[in-house]
Specification:
The chain starts with 15 loop residues before the first helix and ends in a 7-residue tail after the last strand. The chain is globular, with a radius of gyration of 18 Å. Helices cover 26% and strands 22% of the residues. The chain is built from four helices and five strands, in the order H-E-E-E-E-H-H-H-E. The relative contact order is 0.13.
């Protein structure tokens, strides 16, 4: 189960309103296990934007999110590609089976980790994603028009 908190109008810097929102979200989710003094030290490190469509199947309790125009730092998902995430409470669903029949192969993927791996200025981390997958699917933003 995931709990997400969202703030409309994300800013390029974590300003006073953003820090107030962050403190409130942390208080609701983790209080008193986090250190409120850590909030002033936080700074944006990665930028991720996308257009998301969410579909919900009530009969099978499945949720499918489709991310397009996905930007991770200075990289963007190639035109025509979509990142699909299928979440369900149980075993494989009809959605999973339909995707496999179309040639899709399930893989573990974290947009946060992928953004770190695509951004050479970040602290090196252990590689979780295949470099060829990232290189094939994401191009520098300025190359998007020709990709």
């Amino acid at each position: 189960k995931t709990v997400k908190h969202a703030l409309d109008g994300a800013a390029p810097v974590l300003d006073g309103a953003g820090r107030k929102f962050l403190r409130s979200a942390l208080d609701r989710s983790y209080s008193p296990t986090y250190l409120p003094a850590a909030i002033p030290a936080l700074a944006p490190m990665l930028e991720m934007t996308c257009r998301r469509t969410t579909l919900v199947g009530l009969a099978e309790q499945v949720r499918v999110t489709a991310d397009t125009d996905l930007r991770l730092g200075g990289r963007v998902l190639r035109p025509g590609l979509v990142l699909l995430e299928v979440k369900s409470a149980g075993p494989r669903t009809d959605v999973d089976r339909a995707l496999v029949r179309q040639g899709a192969r399930p893989t573990s993927f974290s947009k946060y980790i992928a953004a770190i791996e695509l951004d050479g200025s970040q602290v090196p981390r252990p590689r979780r994603h295949l470099a060829r997958l990232l290189a094939h699917c994401f191009v520098p933003d300025e190359q998007r028009r020709t990709a």
